[in-house]
Amino acid sequence: MADWTADLATRTRPRPMLEKMGSSERLDAGSEGSGRSAMRERNYRQYCGLASALDAVGDRWTLLVVRELLLGPRRYVELQADLPGIGTNLLAARLKKLRELGLVRRAGHAPHSYDLTAEGERMRDSVLALSRFGMGLLTDPTADVVVRPHWGFLAVAAMADADRLPELSEAYEFRVDDEVFHLAVRDGHARPARGPAPAPALVATTDATTFVQIGAGLIDPMDAVAANRLTLTGDPAAAVRCSVVLGLTKAPQA
Predict the structure, then answer these.
(1) CA 253 to mean position of chain CA atoms
(2) CA end-to-end span of the chain
(3) d(CA 239, CA 254)
(4) Distance (Å, rounded) from C-alpha 241 to C-alpha 254?
(5) pTM to 2 decimals?
(6) Cβ neighbours of 229 (radius 10 Å)
(7) Whether the Cβ atoms of residue 10 and residue 2 lie closer than 8 Å to each other
(8) Pairwise CA distance, residues 55 & 116, whole Å
(9) What is the 3-state secondary structure (H, E, C) of the chain?
(10) 194 contacts: CB under 8 Å, gap ≥ 6
(11) By Cβ atoms counted within 10 A, which residue in 43, 80, 113, 172 is the most buried?
(12) Tell me: the pLDDT tens digits for 36-69?
């Protein structure tokens, strides 16, 4: 993560947008709600890679926009629907800033669709590392919070480490509410993606809240099965291997 932040500081310093951030505060055209009142965006004015990265992507909602693009292109209306609470003016401002930074681009296959650039993809490990950290801070949800299936999948996928079973080659499918995802573990890599897995060794069916709670360690997978909140279909040994890859249980002793 340190390499990414230092490199981003070097790459983005000459950009016109960041040159405008030379003062300790500046007015941003985007704002929450109707956009009638301007939002202040702060510059840390510290000669530090982390501070420079936070100047670029540390304002509210920016990393959540990046999160929404980690599983592929999204249309503007999809982004707005899956970022409840963000105003359309603020979303437009965040996308504009990310495009100016070279982290996001317009996706050519659909109108008003956005995707991460190659430079934006370099943020993946950093964003997933923050997600892993945040999973350890979660408690049981209150009535006023929202959850989306792909948030749970990304959070759980962030926990995946193929090095825990380096010889493993199989895929796991997750059916979370009305969405389907899979995790392919091959060649020492765990690759998350939308859609069904070809010939999955295990299919897990659950709801988004339970999925996040399992990943956060708030509920044991077997307890979720017993409570009819999780259904596992496939090779029982694959369920153990999947739990090992996700760090939910230790690898069995040889």
Answers:
(1) 32
(2) 34
(3) 17
(4) 13
(5) 0.81
(6) 18
(7) no
(8) 19
(9) CHHHHHHHHHHHCCCHHHHCCCCCEEEECCCCCCCCCCEEEECCCCCCHHHHHHHHHCCCCHHHHHHHHCCCCEEHHHHHHCCCCCCHHHHHHHHHHHHHCCCEEECCCCCCEEEECHHHHCCHHHHHHHHHHHHCCCCCCCCCCCCCHHHHHHHHHHCCCHHHCCCCCEEEEEEECCEEEEEEEECCEEEEEECCCCCCCEEEEECHHHHHHHHCCCCCHHHHHHCCCEEEEECHHHHHHHHHHCCCCCCCCC
(10) 71, 72, 150, 179, 180, 181
(11) 172
(12) 333 456 789 999 999 999 999 999 999 999 999 9
Tokens at 217, concatenated: 């360690």
